[in-house]
Structures are given as structure tokens and as C-alpha cells.
Amino acid sequence: MEWTKDEEIVLARAWVYVKSLGPSNPILFWRAVAKKYLERRPAGPHRSKHQLRTKWGNLYGEITTFHNFFSDYRNARPNETKMAK
């Protein structure tokens, strides 16, 4: 079943929230992500921890690709602060 943008946003926010708490055990980490996701999820199908982990893996890959492109673009531009002085 397709994920909605709202579900993706809720998953990303749940991941960021739990990551900020710092649990290092992967089982406890994803249990906490699933709990936070379920507290805030929009209407739709139930998503298992496995589905959350799989979807996050796909999203994380897309986020990393965007971040790398953006960083390359930013680093390739002249430093406007230095030019203004």
C-alpha cells in the first residue's frame, strides 16, 4: 500500500524525535519510533515496525541524496559574505 506524504512526514518527525533521545539499541529505537508514529499517524492503514524501518530506509536515501546535492551546490557558489566586504 502506498504511503501518503502525511505518513512520511509523521515518520520523519518520529525518527528525529527518538534520535534526539539517543537510544542506541536498534530494537528499542524502532519500538520508540513506532510508538511515536502511532501516536501521531494520520488516518490510514496500520504500519508495522518492519514497514516503518523499510520506508525510513528509502526516505533516508532520498534525504541523503538531496543533502549531498545541496551541499555540493552551496560549496560551489562563491562566498557572498567575503565578496561583500
Q: How does this model look, in words?
A:
This protein has helices at residues 5-21, 26-40, 49-76, 80-84. The protein is built from four helices and no strands. The protein is mainly α and 85 residues long.
User: Structural class per helix/strand content?
Assistant: mainly alpha
How would you sum up the major sheet?
A: none
Average pLDDT: 86
Distance between the termini: 55 Å
The number of strands is: 0
Q: Low-confidence parts, pLDDT < 50 over ≥5 residues?
A: none
Rg calc: 17 Å
| Shape call | globular
What string gives the helices and strands in order? Answer: HHHH
Give the fraction of residues assigned to helices: over 70%
How large is the count of helical segments? 4
SS strand fraction: under 5%
What topology emerges from the helices and strands here?
Layout: H1 5-21, H2 26-40, H3 49-76, H4 80-84
Please describe the structure with a list of short key phrases separated by commas or semicolons.
single chain; 85 residues; mainly alpha; 76% helix; 0% strand
Give a concise summary.
The chain has 85 residues and is mostly helical.
